[in-house]
């Protein structure tokens, strides 16, 4: 591989997957794959890598049997509470006879769901009355009926069915509980809620709860499989992003008497369902598994709802989908080669469009970054988890999102209980140091813990903006002189283009515009811009000459830091460890001159999009341009892999070598950013923004690059899936963690924050 030749990784991936797919079987002429049966002694399937286990995905899927079922008290309710991030107050999980229920002490309960096809519906609930005798039920604020409860007795309460079919799409159910209970007293316990579809069946309803649907060891002909068990008519629908070449592998069969049909379909918003498989099955004493290996063609867009259906089962029988997984028929992705050193350089105040290779023209003033753009790997879909710089670096050091490590604002500090990369490296006898010139990552905010060596450079005094680079180069040179075999972890958090700018009066006089008479000064620039950011008329707050001068000052600052970055590279080369170093350059927040260096600001996509250069050991993937999504905790996992260390607890992220190879699917989950009670999640070309207690806004960049229109109602399957993933991430990463810890700011840090423009 020639370092300077850009690699189109999607082509590499397609070639690798195509080669594997050629040996995995033939398709029927109609496009429906011919399933392989165990009775026919099939050839063993091609080696494959599991992308997703559908049994593990079930809590985030829709389960249906004669209508949709909401299994209360379980993770299946995450993201169901009418666009609320968490269950409202007065709604708590409980148990009855080892079964999960939901206790309601709130007078109102609202839940959302998506109806895939037009149909009349009714609502039923398995309940035990406490302080409430009944609940009125409304569908989209239109009365639907009443559920009557019996105190301290379990019963199934049902409303009447709608007289007309309900339109497909998103809907909200509202329950209002009636009774004489005091405020805060328990009103009712609910086992499940059914959005039922009227039918002529006389069979007893068997609710498809998670406990009922998942069979850990379902055996046919003596062969067990971890299975999804469905009664007909019933289905499970999971909305996923399908990577190119994805296949569904499962074994299907009937548990119980009679015959039945198993179906697999792909559903997409605004399109007709696509049948992938229809398989007739026979149960009884001679029931056996039928193995299927189905290509899931992402034609029409990679975001799709995979539906597993059971049809025509006799009473007491269920269709089993054994060990259902999505696989990629490709070799395992490589991990980052073991390295002598990992160097992470994080710059503040960057505008990616002014940097190579994203800048349209040449960048001779940035020779080091220009060289990295040619010889390192550039990642074009790198996204920040927030717009507060201290929180971004906190996520880098912990592999946790902001709401998990709790460093979420300028008044919080990193709790000492959070284990960081520096602490893990130091405990493994790896020499670990951090040098910062950004006040948000000073000791007052908890960043000094766990390092062998930690130095902060306030933006006032005699230390230039290049001081963190220079000190880092000196430190690694000294360490390797004293201990030639030492392994290193080095983190540099630098000013980047953020003011104050180190520009002399002579240099300032030569900057454009040549006739500048404005007020922007290099040393007081951050404070001046902070004042301008507070003005209501922000559009006219900065004149065109001021903007030109700000960009010129930023350019001069970046040129100086590029030279210092080059000095750090030279130190690694002189020490003889450049080829065995993972060298990373990225930003914390995308708040350059165009955004007046705003921090902790809006979660707009331009503020979240960051540059990322990674030079792997021996320049592996040198010159590659990667268009797969990446996030800051991917840097954490790459660092752990390169140094052969690990956290004692699981963290987010993927090894960037695996992503750069094109064999790791990094688009399966959305990229989620948070700030206070706001979120912004990107999933392919979909962006969902909102607050944790209000209906979100969904944008489709492919149709609407300016995000002018809300697509939430027209893309209901995608909207529901994305929102539920946002809420599931939030709840899973915040579970059991400490509360926000306030920072204690000493006078020196307060002075640094004033010069930085953070406080007045």
Query: Helical proportion?
Result: 10-25%
Number of helices: 16
The description of the largest β-sheet is: 11 strands, antiparallel
Number of strands: 35
Structural class: alpha+beta
Proportion of strand residues: 25-35%
Name the average pLDDT.
90
Low-pLDDT segments: 1-40
Could you characterize what this model shows?
The protein is an alpha+beta fold. 21% of the residues lie in helices and 30% in strands. It is built from 16 helices and 35 strands. The strands form six sheets. Strands 2, 3, 4, 5, 7, 10, 12, 15, 17, 18 and 20 form an eleven-stranded antiparallel sheet that branches. Strands 26-25-27-22-28-29-23-30 form an eight-stranded mixed sheet, sandwiched between helices. Strands 1, 13, 14, 16, 19 and 21 form a six-stranded antiparallel sheet that branches. The longest helix has 31 residues, at 544-574. It is globular and about 90 Å long. Mean pLDDT is 90; it is low at 1-40. It comes from Polyangium sorediatum. Residues 1-21 form the signal peptide. Residues 342-645 form the Sulfatase N-terminal domain. Residues 24-44 are annotated as: Disordered. Residues 32-41 have a biased composition (Low complexity).
Keywords:
760 residues; alpha+beta; 11-stranded antiparallel sheet; 8-stranded mixed sheet; 35 strands; 30% strand; globular; disordered N terminus; Sulfatase_N; Sulfatase-like hydrolase/transferase; signal; Alkaline_phosphatase_core_sf
How are the SSEs placed, and which strands pair?
Blueprint: H1 9-22, E1 49-53, H2 54-57, E2 62-65, E3 67-71, E4 91-96, E5 99-104, E6 108-115, E7 122-129, E8 134-139, E9 142-148, E10 154-158, E11 169-178, E12 188-196, H3 210-213, E13 214-220, E14 223-230, E15 234-241, E16 247-255, E17 259-267, E18 274-282, E19 290-295, E20 303-311, E21 318-328, E22 341-347, H4 367-375, E23 377-383, H5 389-398, H6 402-405, E24 412-413, H7 421-427, E25 431-436, E26 453-456, H8 467-482, E27 488-494, H9 505-509, H10 525-533, H11 544-574, E28 581-587, H12 605-608, E29 612-615, E30 625-631, H13 632-643, H14 656-660, E31 671-675, E32 678-683, E33 686-691, E34 697-700, H15 716-734, E35 741-742, H16 747-756
Parallel strand pairs: 22-27, 22-28, 23-30, 25-26, 25-27
Antiparallel strand pairs: 1-21, 2-3, 2-15, 3-12, 4-5, 5-12, 6-11, 7-10, 7-12, 8-9, 8-11, 13-14, 14-21, 15-20, 16-19, 16-21, 17-18, 17-20, 23-29, 24-35, 28-29, 31-32, 32-33, 33-34
